[in-house]
Amino acid sequence: MTDEKTTGGAPVEPAPPAPAPKPAAPPTKAAPAAMTRRGFLSTIGVAWTSFAAACAAGAVATGRFMFPNVLFEPPQSFKAGPPDEFLMGTVDNRFKETFGVFVVRDERSIYALKAVCTHLGCTPNWLDAENKFKCPCHGSGFYRTGVNFEGPAPRPLERYRIVLADDGQIIIDKTKSYAYEKGEWINPESFLSV
Ligand code: FES
Q1: Which of 84, 101, 169, 194 could disulfide-pair with 95, CB 3.0 to 4.6 Å?
Q2: pTM for the whole thing?
Q3: Domains in the chain and their CATH numbers?
Q4: Does ligand 1 lie within 6 Å of residue 157's CB atom?
């Protein structure tokens, strides 16, 4: 007995088996590769942007170095007028605001006190009625000589160089100062004999 079917006596071939389904294609690698390239290009872009920003900042800094801000400070040396403009026993405030200097005249000399408190650098005021310099910040007091006597100031006010010019005017030179505690007030240029 055979299992072949017949049609009109001719053998009929069996239908070929259905093809097996193809396995699913593996996920493509193309997309991640494209992302990686974009990421790389993006990184390069960021790096170049940073480099360009750093170069620009350097150029600006160089420009500021080549053209610095100009500070218009008062001159470090100035003429204060002839000695007889300063009355005996007075403290002259005329140069305090502009030059930071008190000019004091006593019986024998004229000297220029630096108007900077030796505590933390505030500007003291001369109080004529109390016959003393008083610092408004923490209350230090100084005699008219500049020597400290109250408050936290640790030492006397300094004195600037003071000399006579050829035309007879007093020159006060702020590039040189003299400290009492260093014994510098005996320097002949720390006072002007009158
Ligand atoms: S700064 Fe003058 S007492 Fe402090």
Answers
A1: 101
A2: 0.65
A3: 91-193 (2.102.10.10)
A4: no
